[in-house]
Design brief:
With 292 residues, this protein is of the alpha/beta class. An eight-stranded parallel beta barrel has the order 1-2-3-4-5-6-7-8, surrounded by four helices. The chain has a two-stranded antiparallel ribbon with strand order 9-10. It has twelve helices and ten strands. The protein has two domains: 223 residues, Alpha-Beta Barrel (TIM Barrel), CATH 3.20.20.60; 55 residues. The longest helix has 22 residues.
């Protein structure tokens, strides 16, 4: 049975060392929050940030947002302690940075289980290096507990020695490969961050582009990016109306023994009905998220 659809239109990175950001996040309309102990925290502040995040999560107040903890790599001085903390916290997933092979997924899950994490606690994987992109299919297939692939486009751009362009043409191959890997194995896939906070037009373009590609949503670095991302990755009123017409018309055609029907001049088959049902399920999930 397929997992219930969960909106992941906007997933905001929160610096673990920033108490103001941790507090403000309780009132933000993001679908998900990534409590970041890795890139957003200086080495000398790692232990304090872990304690601060743990206290904030235990205090609660973040529901119904999806809560994810990005830990440091296991080979760093902080990685094991981060996983140990994650095993005891009220989380929906643990985000592993710079994943480049399936073995890293297996090891993280084994450690979480040994540390007493809740049974089945999902892991998410950052795909942010050339090796990670090339191994994305193996990573996506590593475990049923792998819940999402997250593009780390900033690190990937650096490692590719590519130029930062608004149309992201240098990243198209990587974006497509990771999306293919995720979809082939039924995983959510999140687009990378947009770093220029003064470039609202460029951010809107990146959101539209990501939505057209098929990403579930976008990772964000600032609260001002939440509303545009939510809008871009939500079905439009026209898409919802068309989905309902497709389901109704196909149902009538099937009742008459026909396997296809024309709607607005286009042929509609069973595959279009499946997509229409997913659209309506996402709309319902978004409505439930807003009500919760």
């Amino acid at each position: 049975m397929a997992a219930p659809i969960r909106p992941r239109r906007s997933v905001l990175f929160l610096p673990g060392a920033n108490p103001r950001a941790l507090e403000k996040a309780r009132s933000l309309p993001a679908d998900g929050l990534i409590f970041d102990l890795e890139d957003a925290v200086a080495p000398e502040g790692k232990d304090d940030a872990r304690a601060r995040v743990a206290a904030a999560l235990r205090a609660g107040g973040y529901a119904p947002r999806e809560l994810i903890l990005r830990v440091n790599p296991l080979e760093t001085p902080w990685g094991h302690a981060d996983l140990e903390a994650a095993a005891t916290l009220p989380l929906d997933a643990v985000l592993l940075p710079k994943v480049e092979n399936a073995e890293r997924v297996h090891l993280a899950i084994e450690l979480l289980d040994a540390l007493g994490a809740p049974p089945g606690l999902p892991v998410w994987c950052m795909i942010e290096t050339p090796l990670g992109v090339l191994a994305a299919a193996d990573i996506a297939a590593a475990s049923p507990r792998l819940g999402a692939l997250v593009l780390g486009t900033s690190d990937l751009t650096k490692d590719l020695r590519a130029r930062e362009t608004r149309d992201r043409r240098p990243l198209m191959t990587a974006l497509g490969l990771v999306l293919l890997a995720g979809r082939a194995h039924g995983k959510a896939v999140l687009d990378g961050v947009h770093l220029d906070l003064d470039d609202a037009e460029g951010f809107a373009f990146a959101c539209r582009q990501g939505s057209e590609f098929g990403f579930d949503g976008k990772t964000l670095i600032h609260p001002t990016q939440i509303d545009p991302a939510n809008a871009a990755f939500s079905p439009t009123a026209e898409e919802v109306a068309r989905a309902r017409r497709i389901i109704a018309a196909y149902g009538e055609a099937a009742g008459a023994g026909r396997g296809a029907v024309r709607i607005d001049g286009r042929l509609v088959e069973a595959l279009h009905v499946e997509a229409a049902r997913r659209t309506l399920a996402l709309v319902d999930a978004i409505a439930a998220r807003a009500a919760g």
